[in-house]
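Whiteboard transcription, Tuesday session. T.W. wrote the structure tokens on the left side:
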């Protein structure tokens, strides 16, 4: 939904779907879903701040963006933990209960940060692969810069699927590092295409997994079709990244 709607309006859909996981008999499940997704967003900002910090160290990434991300994470986590320990009942407790759970269970917190770290690492690996496929010098450094500027530029997305924002930020950052405009534009377009395909694949897969089916056989066929479609889109994205190098 965030691919086709501006300002991340798909987050409302995410809250609605996630709230159903708590069951119909659970009171305040929407507030619990908001709190859980808020905790994930705060933790994700922390993992992404590592990439932004690395980008600021090696490329033209504004240092103030790292301060903003870090300050937001520290303030949000500190205020949420304190409030969660103070409010044991009522609506604030439902929203902030997940923070109390994570602070009381370091293992669950580590698991959350681990999965978010894997997602961030995968995004960084994709950026490095795109830079390498286009023959950009120092692809690791270029990939770090690409990933960092995209995180900063899409912190408050206004366009559906960040159309134009992702590519424009990458072009400006890479060109500031001395990369030719043609290669910078190609890197921006390819990286945006790969991210767009990944979002669509996971969106379709999630839809197929959540839609109610009249029979088990139809569910299996739908999930199989989703797997084939995902494999095809993955192959297309890999081919898109490596075609410029072959030509």
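and on the right, the sequence the group agreed on:
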């Amino acid at each position: 939904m965030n691919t086709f709607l501006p300002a991340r309006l798909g987050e409302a859909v995410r809250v609605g779907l996630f709230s159903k996981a708590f069951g119909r008999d659970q009171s305040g499940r929407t507030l619990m879903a908001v709190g859980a997704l808020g905790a994930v967003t705060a933790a994700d900002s922390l993992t992404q701040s590592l990439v932004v910090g690395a980008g600021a160290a090696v490329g033209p990434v504004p240092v103030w963006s790292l301060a903003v991300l870090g300050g937001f994470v520290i303030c949000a986590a500190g205020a949420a933990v304190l409030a969660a320990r103070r409010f044991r009942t009522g609506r604030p407790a439902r929203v902030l209960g997940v923070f109390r759970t994570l602070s009381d269970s370091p293992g669950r917190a580590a698991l959350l940060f681990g999965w978010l770290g894997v997602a961030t690492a995968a995004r960084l690996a994709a950026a490095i692969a795109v830079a390498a496929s286009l023959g950009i010098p120092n692809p690791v450094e270029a990939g770090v810069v690409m990933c960092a500027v995209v995180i900063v530029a899409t912190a408050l997305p206004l366009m559906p699927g960040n159309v134009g924002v992702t590519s424009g930020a990458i072009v400006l950052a890479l060109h500031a590092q001395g990369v030719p405009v043609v290669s910078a534009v190609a890197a921006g377009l390819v990286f945006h295409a790969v991210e767009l395909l990944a979002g669509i694949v996971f969106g379709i897969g999630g839809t197929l997994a959540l839609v109610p089916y009249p029979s088990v056989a139809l569910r299996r066929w739908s999930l199989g079709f989703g797997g084939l479609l995902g494999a095809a889109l993955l192959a297309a994205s890999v081919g898109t990244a490596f075609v410029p190098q072959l030509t």
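Someone added at the bottom: The mean pLDDT is 79.
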